[in-house]
Design goal:
Keywords: Membrane, Transmembrane, Transmembrane helix. This is Putative tricarboxylic transport membrane protein. It holds the Pfam family TctB. The protein is 75% helix and 0% strand. It is mainly α and 141 residues long. The radius of gyration is 18 Å and the shape is globular. The protein starts with a helix and ends in a 6-residue tail after the last helix.
Length: 141
């Protein structure tokens, strides 16, 4: 039973990744001539990663027991926090919301080491900001 769920999830991810690569990214990523890295390069790379992960799930489904209902509730909370953060980014902005989101999610998964919290809350959002705004020349919300 679980193998079929993995295969179904994998098939969805495979189709979703391919749709991203062949339709969504090419049609919705703006092309710019004055940047060194094409704005669609990273989204296309990530979409191929999603599709490859989905293919692996289809070909080799996991053989494990069903997760506990409590774990599924934590996953639902995790997803709800992500959606709330995406909404908040459009109103408040990336610079404020991204570190708070990183801190919330890191504490939620049990990370309490100060160095890793600092890296996840300060360094990673700063690198994303630098990559997107400086290297790609795009504005973050």
């Amino acid at each position: 039973m679980l193998g079929s769920v993995d295969r179904l999830s994998g098939a969805f991810l495979l189709v979703f990744g391919l749709a991203l690569y062949f339709y969504i990214v090419p049609n919705f990523a703006e092309q710019m001539d004055e940047v060194s890295l094409s704005p669609d390069a990273l989204p296309k790379l990530y979409s191929l990663g999603i599709a490859l992960g989905g293919l692996l799930m289809v070909l080799r489904p996991a053989e494990q027991e069903a997760p506990e209902p409590r774990l599924l509730l934590r996953v639902a909370l995790f997803v709800a926090i992500l959606f709330a953060a995406l909404y908040a980014i459009s109103w408040i902005g990336f610079v404020v919301v991204a570190p708070l989101l990183a801190l919330t999610l890191m504490l939620m998964v049990g990370e309490h080491r100060p160095l890793w919290l600092a890296i996840g809350v300060v360094v990673i959002p700063a690198l994303i900001w630098l990559l997107v705004t400086q290297l790609l020349g795009r504005a973050l919300p």
